[in-house]
Every structure is written in C-alpha cells, then in structure tokens.
Amino acid sequence: MIKYNEKNRTIKLDTPDTSYVLGIRDGGFLLNLYYGRRLPDDNLWSLSKRLESASFSPCDPEYTDFSTDVAPMEYPVNGRGDFRVSALSVRNSDGNTVTDLRYVSHRIFSGKPDMPGLPHLYVSNGSQCDTLEITMRDSYTGLEAVLVYSVFNDCNVISKHVRLTNTSDSVLKLERALSSCIDLPSMDYNLITLWGRHAKERQFEKRPLAHGLQGIHSKRGSSSHSHNPFAALVGRDVTETNGDVYGFNLIYSGNFTFTAEVDHNASVRIVTGIDPTDFGWVLEPSESFTTPEAVHVFSCEGLGGMSRTFHRCYQEHLIRGRWKNEKRPLLINSWEAAYFDFDTDKLISFAERAKELGIEMLVMDDGWFGKRNDDTNSLGDWFVNEKKLDLGRLVDSVHAMGLKFGIWYEPEMISPDSELYRAHPDWCVHVPGREPSIARQQYVLDVSRADVRENVFGQIKNVLSRYPIDYVKWDFNRNLSEAGSALLSKDRGGEFFHRFVLGTYELQNRLVTEFPDILLENCSGGGGRFDAGMLYYSPQIWTSDNTDPVERLNIQFGTSLCYPASVMGAHVSACERTDYRTKGDVALWGTFGYELDPNKLTSEERETVKEQVKEYHKYYDLIRNGNLYRLICPWDNPFVCAWSFVSTDKREALVTLVRMRKEENTLLHLKLQGLDENTVYTVEETGERYSGALLMYAGLEMTGCAYNDGESLKLHLIAD
Ligand code: GLA
Which residue of 442, 475, 591 sits with most ligand 1 atoms within 8 Å of its CB, as the best mutation to test the pocket? Predict the structure, then answer.
C-alpha cells in the first residue's frame, strides 16, 4: 500500500511488516525519512524533525536551515552540496556535472510497469502490487528522473529503479546512474557481503562500518565470482533469528557496485547500481535510460528472516515460465564423468545406468560441437561434431528410455580456432589497435551487436528445432577485457558493458520465449554469474564447480543468504572427501543431481543412490516450497553445521546436520527454528516425540551424533 499525506508532504510505502517514508521538502528536495518496521500512518511529521538538526548549507542560501550534505537524500546528485557518494552524475553540455533534481509530481497506481529488456520483479497471479512514480527534474539541464518504487502485498520487499530522460535540446552524458540510495541515521551496523573465486563462491564476510567509503563491485563484465550483487547492513548484535537487517540485491548480471559511506555525522549511505567504472551513456535529446532494479528487504527477524523474504519473493515474483512450479527432472551431467572424452555409445551407456538408478535426465556437457575435443577450439561453431556424435540417435535412445535430454552451450564466447572467428574476426569483443587477451583459450563474442546475436541464436535454434531437447545449460567461462565493440562510436565506449548485458538478456529471453518448454540452467565457470538477473530467465543456476560436500557447505550457506534452494544447482559427484550419504544430504539442499560416471559406481553406492533418488522425491515439496532455517552456520562454527526446511504450515520439517571436522569432547544441543511450539512432532527415524517448544527452546541433544569428519545426519519431523 502506498499513501500520500498532503499535509505533511510525505509518501509512505507499506509492505505487510515494513514501512518506507519519503518526504518532499520545501524547494522540492526529496528525502528518505524512514525505512524499517511498519509504522502507523499518523504522526509522520515527527520524522521530519530529523532534518531540523541539518546545518546551514553554504551552497544554498535560500534554505538556511537545510543542507543536502546532512539530509537523507533519496536520489543524491553531484555538485549540489552533498559531498557524499552520489547516485547520479551527469555531464551537461557546459562540460560540468552540477545537477539539481527537484520534485515535480508523483503518481500512485496499482500494478507494476514493465522494464523492457531488463529482468525485473513481476506481479504474479493472486498477488497485488502498488507502484509509486516520482518525477524529479533539473530545470537547468532538462534532465528528468522518474524514481519508480513497487511494493507487494505478499512479501516485505520494496523494489526501486530509475528512468532518466533528456528533455533538453543538448546531449547529456550519464557518468553514474545508480538504481538506489538509502541513508540511515547511524553507523552502528556491520556490512555483510559475499566474496568468492572459482570453486569458492559466495563466502560470508562481515565487517564493521568505518568512516569513509567501503563496499564491493565488479568490473569483469558479469556479476562475477569475486563478489555477489548482494549486501546487508545488520545491527551489531544481529543473529539468524533476531535483530534488524537491511538486505539489498541488484537484479543485474553485469558490472555492479554496492558502496556504503559513513559520513562526518556518523550516518551511513548505501548506494547500488551499475558500476560507474567504465560506464558512460550518451543521452541524445528525448532519449531515456533505465537503471536495473534494486530489491530491498528489511527484517527484524535477523538474517534468517531476511533470507526467507528474498527466497519467497524470487520464487513468486522473479522466476517465470513452465519450470517455476513444475517439478524439475533429476539430472545426471556428463562433465565430471567424461569431460571431452565421449561418443554416442558412451553417453547412451550413462543414460542406461542412470535410468536404472531412477535418474530422469541426461545432460551432455561441453564437447559436442564443431571439432571440439578440448578447450582450444570451436566456441561459436554450434553445429554437431558428426565425427564424434550421432545426436539424433543419442536423443532418440535417451527419450526411448523415458529420460529427458539436455545440452551445453556457451553462446557469448568465440574460439580463435573456429569457423565463426575466421569468417568474422571483428565479432569478438575488442578495441582498435590492441590484441584481445585470451583466457581459457577463448575470446568473448560481441553480443552487444544485433547481427552477432542473430547469428548465434540462429545456430542455437537450428539444433534445438531439429532435435527434441529438454534442457539447456548456458555457460560463460571468462571475464571481459579490452571491452569494446566495432560498432560503437568513440563517444559511446562507456556503453559497451551494459549493452553486452542487454544483449545476453535478449538472447536468453528469445530462448525461453521460442522454446518455452526447455528448462534453462545458467552457469559461469561454476557460480560466477549467480544473480537475480539470470533467475529471470533460468529457474536454476549451477552454484559452483566445487562438488566437495564440505567445501560446498560454505558455498551453499552463503548463497542461501539471498537465493532460494530451488535455484541452487547442486550435484553429487565422485569426490572422495565423504561417503555418498553426506554428498547426497548436502546436494539435497539444491536442485539435486549427479555429476559422475554411473558405470563406475560400486553396487553398494548404487543402492545408496537409489535411496537418495527416493529421498529426492520424498522431500521435493518440503525443500522447494518450505522455509529455510540456518541452524548452525559454518561462519559461526567451523566444526559442525545444520539447517532445516520447515513446511509453511509447520506440519513437517527436515533437519540436516553435517560434521565438517571432528571435535573431541564438545556438547551439541541443536535448537530448531520455525516450528509450532504447541505442536508435538515425531522424529521419523527414531520414533521419539517432542513438542515444538522443546525442540526450539531446549534443543535436541546431538552430542556424539554424526561424530566423525564428513558424517551427516537427517531428521524428518512430522506433526501429530
Ligand atoms: C564450466 C562449468 C562446468 C562445465 C565446463 C565445461 O567450467 O562450470 O560445469 O560445464 O565449463 O567446459
């Protein structure tokens, strides 16, 4: 719900449990007065009292009691006396970046506007959404900014983005065009972010805020392994269950920034959007630019409350298409089983063994196209390597067994040794006069160009139309360097990175529109493009190339801060760190599948796999639709971790505990969360009965359970 109070000139946006209050100050300054727990509608004027402490601004003699450098500015600009990090910087035709945006008007309406070409939250059937659009204007330069906010009736989320339009007769150049800014009147927070690298993605990191700038960004051309486009500001005493948390996520797959600045008044500002490094956008008269959408969650129920809000929101309002709700097939992927070394019969044998185990889909990974038998060639040549493979016979045989069939692509890449590169050397990402750097033996294909997209999509379409393929894994295995396009004029070089991302989005949108039954899974050297932008096109993303179940725990716990179980690609591999039971228990958290040669399983392992397949079906709904509770996190305890899924009606729960490292003589009482305290639950494995209250407040005595390195244990609780 969104309400305008004419008397106070405040606009209040409410989600079920949170409020966000904007104030329009004399002179048309737009201020962010409050974000936090839900407030009643009356007495909002008192929030403006915060401003009375704002000091005289030498920049603005007309408003002697008001300083943009102290006030909580909703969309801060450059050059107007606010010296903190800005959300917008525009170079005008006079050559300076002084900008002064003032409120012009607003409108409130039901529904949510489309954001053509960009992934965004949408209003799903049965839910309601209200939108606020505030028009701001710089009367000197003619820049118009429409700030767009949406709130949903079924989750505590506020989304924001900005539409910038040049209403003047001269050219304006955007040098920084961020999606969102929040000012909070205290620096008493920790900043949580997710750093990583290949095979070690989304590692939890917490640091106290300090004066000055701090934050994360990517300038790699993708959201990247290094940092995820997620950040949270949390009170100093926040736990999984208690305390105030502000969570921020950007629905974007390219260069991004999250920057927090603590100023001289010990207030904090956090801004997010496209990373300004290497960004620039020319706005000709009457042209517009739309920023990506930022998602904001406030929870007073600790990190767990924030995560469950993101999860529910993304499941309902971001993921689309047939596979949003339809049960996904349990897959086996050929990569770790065969790498490039396969032929038709080998893959058919994988499918035969997999079928015996109850697996439902075979995915043929890298190595089926061009002349590719290693990673030195053929990216861009998306036609079947007929010397190696009879794809028709393979797909038909797999389908005849009752299994589905999937295939791997890396559409935004081109090998120097490829027919495509020989025909179109200027189609690779490059700048004049410089040799493009090679990484993983490949260049990047310039998908900012419509002709290039047409070619690569045409090739993909040929294969997908000819063979009945059920699943596509879309990979992206290097960063962008020497980033430029042969088609972009010199003054538009700064547009390249964003145009590249828009090109990717267009390609993925075409794929899911023209082949709506295909299940798309994104991937990027493991989990290097694991972001909300990708989730708009693919309902699942490969989380990491690291399939070691103990290493995976840090990765999956970190990923779960923002992203639901239903999107986390997680497979059991032949990794020898633990036995199959633990590998299965960890992979069950995600989409679940296998990444191994099924011919090499021992008969005992085969029986374990069959049991796991049964468990996958048994717990599918609980894990996909239930609520996640992180019970013991690896960042708090290096020895043991535990998590649970609880059904939304609290009638059922699955608790999993993994001993990462044995610790002698330590007691373990595991306190559960999210149950109904007045309900009695039976533990299916032992027959023991406990009240929800006992399980949550006293905890289960688990000392000595799953005691050795890498052991795991599951408990299935069922309400009376
Ligand atoms: C990336 C992916 C792997 C696999 C290989 C194939 O590394 O993360 O799963 O698909 O590419 O080259």
Answer: 475
For residue range 46-76, list pLDDT tens digits in order.
787 665 555 444 455 555 567 888 899 999 9
Residue 545 CA: nearest ligand 1 atom is: 8
What residues contact residue 193 under an 8 Å CB cut-off, 6+ apart?
Answer: 205, 215, 216, 227, 228, 230, 231, 232, 258
Our answer on whether the CB atom of 530 is closer than 6 Å to any ligand 1 atom is no
Closest ligand 1 atom number to CA of residue 473:
10
Of the candidates 644, 621, 659, the one whose C-alpha atom is nearest the C-alpha of residue 692 is 644
Query: In 3D, which of 716, 583, 711 has the Cα closest to residue 658?
Result: 711
Instruction: Read off the pLDDT of residues 503-551 as tens digits, 9 standing for 90 and up.
Output: 999 999 999 999 999 999 999 999 999 999 999 999 999 999 999 999 9
Question: Ligand 1: distance of its center to the CA of 478 in Å?
Answer: 11
Distances (CA, A) of 171 to 95, 166, 563: 11, 8, 40
For 538, the token pair is: 């693919």
pTM of the model: 0.98
Tell me how far the alpha carbon of residue 160 lies from the centroid of ligand 1, in angstroms.
34
Is residue 475 annotated as a catalytic residue, yes or no?
yes
Ligand 1: which residue has its CA nearest to atom 12?
A: 366
Long-range pairs of 37-44 with CB within 8 A, sequence gap ≥ 24: 37/298, 37/300, 38/14, 39/12, 41/3, 41/5, 41/12, 44/5, 44/8, 44/10, 44/12
Nearest to residue 714, comparing CAs of 627, 619, 639, 620?
A: 619
Of 263, 365, 475, 531, the catalytic one is: 475
- CA 461 / ligand 1 centre spacing (Å): 21
Q: How far apart are the first and last CA of the chain?
A: 38
Q: Exposed, middle or buried, 331 (CB in 10 Å: 0-12/13-18/19+)? A: buried
DSSP H or E stretch at residue 36: strand 29-37
> Measured in angstroms, how far is the CA atom of residue 373 from the centroid of ligand 1?
14
Nearest CA to ligand 1 atom 11: 525
Residue whose token pair is 């090109």: 503
Cα separation, 364 vs 379, whole angstroms: 16
The strand pairing partners of 19, in sequence order, are 14, 36
Task: Round to whole Å and give the CA distance between 698 and 692.
Answer: 10
Ligand 1 centroid vs 674 CA: distance in angstroms? Answer: 37
The whole-chain average pLDDT of the chain stands at: 96
Q: How far is CA 99 from the centre of its chain?
A: 32
Distance CA 47, CA 33 (A): 6
* 718: number of Cβ within 10 Å: 13
Helix or strand or coil: residue 357?
A: helix
Residue 327 burial by Cβ neighbours in a 10 Å radius (0-12, 13-18, 19+): exposed
At which residue do the structure tokens 């962008």 appear?
480
Q: Is 417 in the pocket of ligand 1 (CB under 6 A)?
A: no
What is the dihedral angle through the alpha carbons of 545, 546, 547, 552, rounded to the nearest 10 degrees? -130
Considering 183, 365, 545, 585, which one is annotated as catalytic?
Answer: 545
State residue 8's pLDDT score.
86
Which element (helix H / strand E) includes 422? helix 419-423
C-alpha of 652 from chain center: 28
SS (H, E, C) 100-115: CCEEEEEEEEECCCCC
Show Cβ contacts of residue 165 under 8 Å, excluding neighbours closer than 6 positions.
143, 144, 145, 146, 283, 286, 287, 288, 289
Q: Which of 365, 521, 540 to mutate to test the pocket of ligand 1 (most atoms within 8 A of CB)?
A: 365
